[in-house]
């Protein structure tokens, strides 16, 4: 599972520690998710998506070629980059 | 040398935690310390025959287990409230410890029956589990770094 967490965090100019605080998790958890070492559970994944005002599939996606977005998606990841 | 490399493992371990996890872990460790003190004290009192007979003997023998129940409850709270990666790390470490105990405990029993003087080392399986638990935490933390 890949994700855009690092990009989304950078857009807000947040440190990993700040993001960890917002999510109420450890900094190690944020680091592990960003590096693709750990896939969060649904609860945390939804929490992350909600925090960045994105759909969950705009943040997390399978494969290596970028997030899967639909044409009708007004919050699509492609429009954010 | 920067601060990150000079800090001890324990300082870095705690710094990575949320305030809630740190608080729960310290509560658990204090109770664990109290259990260790009670266990050593009870062992000594029984060993020197000070309080090893009568009702007080039973009390001395049972008190460490009562404290251990509090330690288990505190660890359960730490595990329940921990963020999900920390919980995964703990569960992987516990699984490794249980597996190590499962391998070592019957082996110790059989080797003892063969005549090896392991009777003086009743806590070999327990020590093995503790050692492998620590190894499990270190390995799991490394895996997710």
Your description of this structure?
The complex is a heterodimer of chains A (81) and B (145). Chain A has helices spanning 5-11, 16-23, 27-34, 42-51, 56-59, and strands at residues 2-3, 60-61. Chain A is mostly helical and 81 residues long. In chain A, helix 2 packs across helix 3. Chain B is mostly helical and 145 residues long. In chain B, 81% of the residues lie in helices and 0% in strands. Chain B is built from six helices and no strands. The longest helix of chain B has 30 residues, at 84-113. The interface between A and B is medium-sized, with 15 and 15 residues.
Give a brief rundown of this model.
The complex is a heterodimer of chains A (81) and B (145). Chain A is mainly alpha-helical and 81 residues long. Chain A contains five helices and two strands; from the N terminus they run E-H-H-H-H-H-E.
Topology (SSEs and partners):
The complex is a heterodimer of chains A (81) and B (145).
Chain A: E1 2-3, H1 5-11, H2 16-23, H3 27-34, H4 42-51, H5 56-59, E2 60-61
Antiparallel strand pairs in A: 1-2
Helix pairs in contact in A: 2-3
Chain B: H1 3-6, H2 9-15, H3 19-47, H4 54-81, H5 84-113, H6 124-143
Q: Kindly report how far apart the N and C termini of chain A lie.
A: 19 Å
Order of helices and strands of chain B: HHHHHH
State the shape of chain A.
globular
Describe the oligomeric state of these chains in a short phrase.
heterodimer
How many angstroms separate the termini of chain B? 21 Å
The low-confidence runs of chain A, each spanning 5 or more residues with pLDDT under 50, are: 65-81
Radius of gyration of chain A: 12 Å
Largest sheet of chain B: none
- Mean pLDDT score of chain B, rounded? 85
For the residues shown, what is the average pLDDT of chain A? 81
- Tell me, briefly, the overall form of chain B: flat
Share of β-strand residues of chain A: under 5%
- What is the CA-atom radius of gyration of chain B, in angstroms? 19 Å
Which structural class do you get from the secondary structure elements of chain B?
mainly alpha
Helix count, DSSP H or I runs of 4 or more residues of chain A: 5
Report the total helices of chain B: 6
